[in-house]
Amino acid sequence: MTGDPLFADGVDWGDIGIMGIKIGVAFAALLVATMFMIWFERKLISDMQHRIGPNVAGPWGLLQALADGIKFFFKEDLRPANADPLVFRLAPYISAVTAFVAFAIVPIGGVFTDPASPGAVGRGGTVTLFGKETILQVADPPVGILLLLAMSSVAVYGVMLAGWSSGSKYPLIGSVRASAQAISYEAALGMSVVAVVIAAGSLSTQSIVAQQVGGTWWGGSPDDWFLLTTGIVPFVVFLISATAELNRPPFDLVEAEQELVGGFHTEYSSIRFALFFLAEFMNVITMSAIMVTLFFGGPAGPIFFGLTWLWPTVWFLAKVLAFLFVFVWFRATLPRLRYDQLMSLGWKVLIPVMLFWLMFLGLRQLVVDQGWSTLQKVVVVLGLSAAGLALGWSLLAAALRAAKRNTAGEYFEGQDPEAVTPTADAPTGSVPADRALAGASPGEAGPEGES
Amino acid sequence: MVEVVVFAVAGAACLAGAVGVVLSRNPVHAALMLVMTLFGIAVLFVALQAHFIAAVQVIVYAGAIVVLFLFVIMLLGVDRAAELSLGALPAQRWTAAAFGIGGAAVLVWLVAAVDRIFQGLPSYCAEEAAKLGREAPSAVCASLQEAGALGSESAPTATNYLIDVSAIARSLFSDYVYAFELTSLLLIVAVIGTVILARRSGYGESAPAESGETPQEARP
Q1: Pick from A143, A164, A409: which is nearest to B52 by CB?
Q2: Which of A17, A233, B158, B209 is 20 to 30 Å from the Cα of B135, by its Cα?
Q3: What is the pLDDT of residues B137-156, one digit of tens each?
Q4: What are phi and psi of A75, to 5 degrees?
Q5: CA A82 to CA A186: how far, in whole Å?
């Protein structure tokens, strides 16, 4: 299933030309989609806030993003004197390139069903381009969806290095926040991808989509979508952690304006700033497309008449648009989380929930693979899941209680030095030394007793 | 031809990155050079058709470990160019050079030895098969035959890559499961140890100790 049928019979210049066209089209489409997304977001948010939004450049303000882009090109490119010259120039490109590469694995169309023979699984997601069978995605590497995780973990470098190389306080704080946030939520994101991989039995996006599409002309029912077959939990976790990975509101602490000026890109201007902006919006589009691919059947949908190859792409774009709307909706309605809330949501809620859900899905897959009877299924899946849930929950509750008790202890110990400090400055050294010894003994006893 | 070009470019990137790690004065630049080496190795893995290992290499090493290096470098504020001329013993440099050259020699010898063994394996397997009258007498020969290294020159097909992932999973969770679990136990012990060592045990312990020391130091 994996691999492009284009290269099945060796590579000639025609194949290379088709690859070139694909890369060019994907790049151009992403750029245009980014411009559209900027307009869409500004217009939608202004609608939700009873404003008009951009309405001067072009009809309905459609050309506003283009005007902004041209303005960025002609602005002066400033570099702070403290900045690290090489890394400062490198960082925006890392962000932009990883954003583009991650999109390469998304199948944006292709006929998965064959209208001519209903019931048969169709053409395997291929279309005919210049007389050659090919898939409608830039690349279908054997590691498939792992490329997304690799790219999103490399994208951290863009933000991190931008903040560090600026040689300024606010960007550095923003980038440290960003990297901690990205590392925390990558775990939950990866685990929800694993849920889909367990269900699909394959890493390749092409084959993940093919299993969600039925063989009939209407493209199978949504029952086959991994949204339902994995139980909605992985999708919800993926949506939340993708929002956090994208640094979109309500998780945009990286560029919290009230606290950090502009966050990691405070010192950037001109085209380099535009590259960060571009990467951010490209990532929003890519994540929406990945969500559609993983959970909503990708280009699955009814094929009615006429251009059979066009309909899947139409369905795909419609689904992606729905997710773009959701991201804008988040931004317009949800207030920003505090940093401790962000961390506790990631580590104490999403990751434990996803671990439990993975165990449940694994058990279910085991039962299906072994071909056990219904009674065994119920006993094994429900019984073991309940036992695992109870054990995990009690462990987590115990750990949280211990953590709370420890912080409470530190709080009380924290009162002590404040009482001591004024006397410590006094010239007679003997009194604070005694106080220090007296203060130290309960402090030492506390952690030892607990650990 | 393509393989040679890919190998040359990726190998050059690896070497340049490795040399850069050693020569960079700035710790952040050194970490970035390390990332370049890791990417070069990932490309080499792809050229060897080990796609899964390449992806894991990028996700784990470039994506997590070096990011944590950078995180620590930035948090500790040691991201300024280090002064390397201070403190090095004169003998240290010569010893390091000797160890480096010796290590390189051992590495070259090892590669040559392993290569000699692999060159000899097909004929060894053929001999043994002829002697015992069986297809794959030993485990090494069986796995070689499975990989297509003996005789037939069939290139690995697309379906082999998927088997690649599940084969790794199968051996990881069956033959090597104890080693795997023990490694994870070791990592957890290391994490707990780090937390206990690095944990600042409350203000009550450290702050009065400091405030008690300062007057004593000030007195003489």
Answers
A1: A143
A2: B158
A3: 566 666 666 655 544 444 44
A4: -80, 160
A5: 32
| pLDDT mean for each 10 residues of chain A (451 residues) | 60 78 86 88 88 82 84 83 82 88 83 51 59 73 84 86 82 82 87 88 81 65 75 89 86 74 78 86 90 84 70 84 90 85 86 86 80 74 78 82 70 47 42 42 39 34
Enumerate the residues of chain A whose CB falls inside 8 A of the CB of residue B212. Answer: 424, 429, 432-433, 435-437
Query: DSSP letter at B65?
Result: I
Interface probe for A, chosen from B34, B41, B58 (most Cβ of A below 10 Å), is B58
* A299-323 core/surface letters (b: 16 or more CB in 10 A; e: else): bbbebeeeebbebbbebbbebbbeb
Could you tell me how many residues make up chain A?
451
Tokens 């890919």 found at: B6
φ and ψ at residue B187, rounded to 5 degrees: -65, -40
**Amino acid, single-letter form, for residue B138:** S
A104, A116 Cβ separation under 8 angstroms: no
How many C-beta atoms surround the C-beta of residue A398 within 10 A?
10
Is A293 in contact with A212 (CB distance < 8 Å)? Answer: no
Cβ distance of A440 and B58 shorter than 8 Å: no
CB distance B193 to A403 below 8 Å: no
A24 touches chain B (CB under 8 A): no
CB contact under 8 A, B203 and A414: yes
> Looking at this predicted complex, what is its ipTM?
0.72
Which residues from chain A sit within 8 angstroms of residue B199, using beta carbons? 447
Q: Which of A87, A147, A421 sits opposite B28 (nearest CB)?
A: A87
- Give the C-alpha distances (Å, rounded to integers) separating B144 from B3, B114, B138, B152, B172: 22, 15, 10, 11, 19
Residue A203 forms contact with B (CB below 8 Å)? yes
Please spell the DSSP secondary structure of A391-427, one letter per residue: HHHHHHHHHHHHHHHHHHHHHHHHHHHHHHHHHHTSS
Any B CB within 8 A of A420 CB:
yes
The reply to whether omega before A250 is within 30° of 0 (cis) is yes
CB contact under 8 A, A451 and B205: no
Instruction: Look at the block and give the residue holding tokens 């990751």.
Output: A351
Separation of alpha carbons A225 and B196, rounded Å: 46
Within 8 A of A3 by CB-CB distance, chain B residues are 158
CA atoms within 13 A on the CB side of B53: 15
From B59, B79, B159, residue closest to A164, measured CB to CB = B79
